[in-house]
Give the backbone structure.
Amino acid sequence: MKMKKVTALLLTVAMAATMLAGCGSKEEKAEGKKEDGKTVLKFAAFEGGNGAEIWKNIEKAFEEEHKDVDVELHLSSELDKDLQKDFKNGNVPDVVYYNLGQESGFVETMLKEKAIADISDVFDDELKGKLVGGITENAAAQPYGDGKVYLAPIIYTPTGLWYNKDLFEGANKKYDLPTTWDEFFALGDKAKADGISLFTYPQSGYFDATMYQMLAQAGGIDFYNKAVNYDKKTWTSEEGKKVVDTIAKLASPDYIQADTVANANSDGGFKINQQNVIDGKALFMPNGNWVIGEMANSTPEGFNWGMMAPPKFNADEDNYIYTFTEQMWIPADAENMDLAKEFVKFMYSDTVVDLMLNNKVVNKETNEESAAPIVSPVLGASDKLEDGTIKDTYTLASSDGYEAVAGTWATTKPIDGFDMKATVYGAIDALNTGEMTADQYQKQLVDAWEKLLENVE
Amino acid sequence: MEKINKHKKPSSYIYKLFIYVALLALAISIIIPVAWVFMASLKKNSEFIGGDVSPWALPKEFFVQNFVVAFRDANMGTFFLNSVIVTATALILLLLLALPASYALSRFNFRGKKILNIAFMAGLFVNISYIVVPIFLMLSDANKLLGVDFFLNNRFILALVYASSALPFTVYLLSGYFRTLPKGFEEAAYIDGCGYFKTMTKIMVPMAKPSIITVILFNFLSFWNEYIIAYTLMDGNDTLAMGLKNLMAVEKTATNYGIMYAGLVIVMLPTLILYIMVQKRLTEGMTLGGLKG
Amino acid sequence: MNRKRSERRFVFACLAPAVILMVLFIFIPTINVFRMSLYRMGGITNKQTFIGLENFKTLLGDKNFLQAMQNTILIIVLVMICTIILAVLFAALLNRGTFKGKNFFRVIFYIPNILSIVVIAGIFGAIYNPSTGLLNTFLKAIHLDGLARQWMAEPNIVIYSVIFALIWQAIGYYMVMYMASMAAIPPDYYEAASLDGATEIQMFFKITFPLIWSNIRTTLTFYIISTINLSFLFVQIMTNGGPNGNTEVALNYMYKQAYTNGSYGYGMAIGVVIFLFSFILAGIVNKITDREVYEF
């Protein structure tokens, strides 16, 4: 406390000096209410592959419906860093769009620190009835598994393995789409003879969806649920071992495009890995439909994307598809909690659903607009998509013989000196470079699960 | 120097060849990548992508559009001005603070001198990367304590933090120089009736000019390129280095290689021009004893 | 007596502003870092619990941290040794050599030092890229395909790729420093030696090197301080520690723990260790290089 006083004193001196120097720059900051009596809703949104326009449109639409509200939009490609600052500075946004599974782990940290508000009351029966089944019933919406919703899924995307469609169907068909891992690796050997690698991954973190899918595929939904809650036997069980071995085999230099790890570890290099699928250097990569927009500027005309579910272990199983969601949430310290909840609810309105479906991104070089639809987890939304690859991915997820799985690893307390992403996914780079064997990877996972289980709340 | 060349042995040719190979190797390793970035900044996206694309190929046409977009996206116009303001203010502050301090530390004897010397030395070891957040918190607390919105997002405060962070090194450098000056100057000045202050400003500081130029150049570069402190303390009044960081982050979400390299060039160019303009001074400043251990 | 007092007043006036700012923006934050290292606290919210030296105990058993420290030490040692050798060599060549283009080389060599880290990272991204990188395509063009490598992936290589970038960046700066102190050596030393028939190489070891030794010694401390910092800035943009922690350095690990793992207190404990480490290392280096200084 004493130090604070000294500091304050010194700073006052500094301030006085500055005032004298006449260099002070002061900016009026909106504090809750503006002069014209409008309530200010501070909305922070991540500017990613979906572009910036969509959030500006949503801002306008909300203001249109709520004449007494002024939405203050904070868009940033480095939103995690901006928010870190804002939170420390006590400048808390009312509502945030930033999803789980980002490189920064920002939402995960917020959850660990219990800094996100319970918004279960937004999801009343009426709204739930409108949404895709089960979308709020998993760990990506209920991170603490206590039956309460903290993260609102506003975008959902089936994920899988992406490929060049023309290699697998149509006039220039070269290969058959594999359905089991055995067929998949057999295809890999065949493609290798043609000088094409079977697989690449943008960055090891992209294995998250694949790994969730594989766990469900290997042991069913119960096994998956136990695994994401750090069941002790996860990785020593037969199913877990199967997942580890398959990943190790997949990551071996026999199947991975040679430049993958180098690109994955360079700044912005993940796009080169994605480009390698377009350029025909690798057949498959794990991804979601955002990749289409992300790569639009460098995709040659006439290229067709395709997506399939990651293979099954046995031909007679149903195939799981992992659904990735992007979330909107309200900080526990938000000032306008009720209005923020209203805003979250607004995300599921017809207005926003349509705005998202009609989203476009602009190619900066040519100024051409291209469609980059975003799909809200509202029933019927995906049906309104134009026919094409994106629609196919949603149709696939709901067709016969396929089952959806969603969620994420359970939230734990912060564990000093432990890096979940590096331990679980980063190790895949090491499997490729030969630094780690499947057994070592398994052991690392077993140890990690033990540690994680101790820290589950 | 002449004398060495007079008796040429065969080995001196090998020696000369070695010199040239070594010098050229390093020069090439610097020129080529830098020139390459300039070249890449004029290429279209399609010239970076595809199986048969060579990074060594010249741009098909000079696609200047990249610069326009980079300039606009990274808001470089205002950021440029901010960078100039912050860098200039920080340099002035730094000199105003460091010159008297180093002069006093090196030319006078007083109680506590040793402790102060050690304190300035210790300051060298403090890394800005881990104190930047405590600084931010301190300024944020000060805002709250005094009920003002003053200490953050303020170009002057940023300049002040820059100047303070550069103090240990600058004081170290300048006091090293002052120490090499003969004592006689001041005594002569005192006898002429100059006060301490006048002696310092009129006699000692002008003599330290080469060192001051070195200090300015070193710190200009580090202030101009700095982004960690700037990013933490600013919010809106961004500097050019932050603009570039931000541009890189935006371009990551879409594939725009040419624009990215154009951004690199925009940030690199002012420092390159300034450096070429004053490079002679830099070595001179150092040669004239600026950095004697 | 009066004079003594006014001298004291002058000294005080000269030092006070600088000292106040140092205390405010360097020492108080550093003390805060030390204080926070004794707490468990999050990276976003400011909830804190005092846990004493617990963080430091955890550190001792943290394999990732030990790997990061190992890498940091390797980087410091290699960057220091290679840069000294190259910078002294080039400084000597430019100082003593009689050939065309001396000025040109001097100007060029300093360029890496004026570039922003972001620019340098961009440049090395373009150099190390496996298929379209300048390095590998060059090696292929001169039919040395065998030497082409995955510079950013192979566990035995990737850290050296980072080290190379650091050395590339540092040479010019230190070269100019050494040139400055070489220029201060009186030319008659060399004249006398060459009359005695000494070769350039002999003169370098007998005259130049001993006389700039004290300057080199001073720069050793700079190497330690700046390499710890620069290795972080480079790694953060170039590899972020990957693959599998092979390029992780201490400060970057601190950053990750403090901000992406929600272990802010733990991160600050790492910061404290890095501070003490650099301080002690500089002390040790200073001690073992302490030998007779040749004056001129």
Q: What stands out?
A: The CA atoms of residues 64 and 309 of chain A lie 41 Å apart.
